[in-house]
Automatic annotation (TrEMBL):
TM spans (from-to): 12-33, 53-74
UniProt-listed InterPro entries: GPI_Anchor_Biosynth, PIG-P
Domain PIG-P residue range list: 12-156
GO terms for cellular component: endoplasmic reticulum; membrane
Bilayer topology: Multi-pass membrane protein
Cellular localization per UniProt: Membrane
GO biological process: GPI anchor biosynthetic process
Identification of the protein by name: PIG-P domain-containing protein
Pfam families the UniProt entry points to: PIG-P
Keyword terms, alphabetized: Membrane, Transmembrane, Transmembrane helix
Superkingdom of the organism of origin: Eukaryota
Native source species: Exocentrus adspersus
């Protein structure tokens, strides 16, 4: 199996389980630290805990940073990475503007070949030849450029 695949693997399952357990343990420790009075910690000999201020301040700081990233930084990155309308990267090529780019295969040009299967009872060539026109018509069209004006019209005018 390739190394960089999103498929489940035993090592990925172990890492996920360890991450889940460690999160649960740290969250329970955080709740204990935030709720239990200091006297109980002193009875156990634990005197080096941070101030209670950080029990509330750290999550609020994290949420503020997350909000700023989600609503300011991330959209700004998208805006700065988008080329201007007069940029050379927005100019289309001739291969992507063909009107017949939706046609994948010309069904009439397919050569009728003989079946090379060893077992003729298990041969599906005739079946595939009979349904090919249906498959070609339902296939995903070839990549092509779309006019900006068509996109704007479909998004905003209708």
């Amino acid at each position: 199996m390739p190394q960089h695949t999103p498929a489940p693997s035993p090592s990925r399952a172990v890492y996920s389980f360890v991450m889940y357990l460690s999160f649960e343990i740290f969250f329970i420790l955080y709740l204990i630290w935030a709720v239990v009075p200091d006297e109980y910690f002193h009875l156990l000999g634990i005197t080096f805990l941070p101030q209670r201020y950080w029990a509330v301040a750290a999550p609020i700081y994290f949420l503020i940073v997350l909000t700023v990233f989600a609503f300011v930084i991330y959209p700004a990155m998208g805006k700065f990475m988008t080329p201007n309308l007069d940029d050379m990267r927005t100019i289309k090529d001739t291969a992507g503007t063909r009107r017949n780019a939706n046609v994948l295969v010309n069904v009439d040009s397919i050569k009728e070949g003989k079946c090379i299967c060893k077992d003729k009872d298990k041969c599906y060539k005739e079946f595939y030849d009979s349904i090919q026109s249906k498959v070609v018509n339902k296939s995903i069209p070839v990549l092509k450029d779309i006019e900006m004006w068509d996109v704007s019209e479909r998004l905003y005018l209708k």
